[in-house]
Predict the 3D structure of the following.
Amino acid sequence: MGLAPYLSLILLSYIQQKIKSEEILNGYTKREIIYELKKLKMIQHKNGLNILTELAKRAREIFKAFNIKLPREKT
């Protein structure tokens, strides 16, 4: 078994734990959380400015539940 499957299991276990412990994630499945996060896109301009595409409400809820700070634009 390689490293990637092992890390995937750890990540999925962590997501499942958060679903159980965070009320804001009530009703979400692991698959729905991963699907929402897969939609995120970061655009990098030639001048080095990074812009995160608009976050849906569900993505913002997931960020909040996992204590992830929203990325800021770099200048």
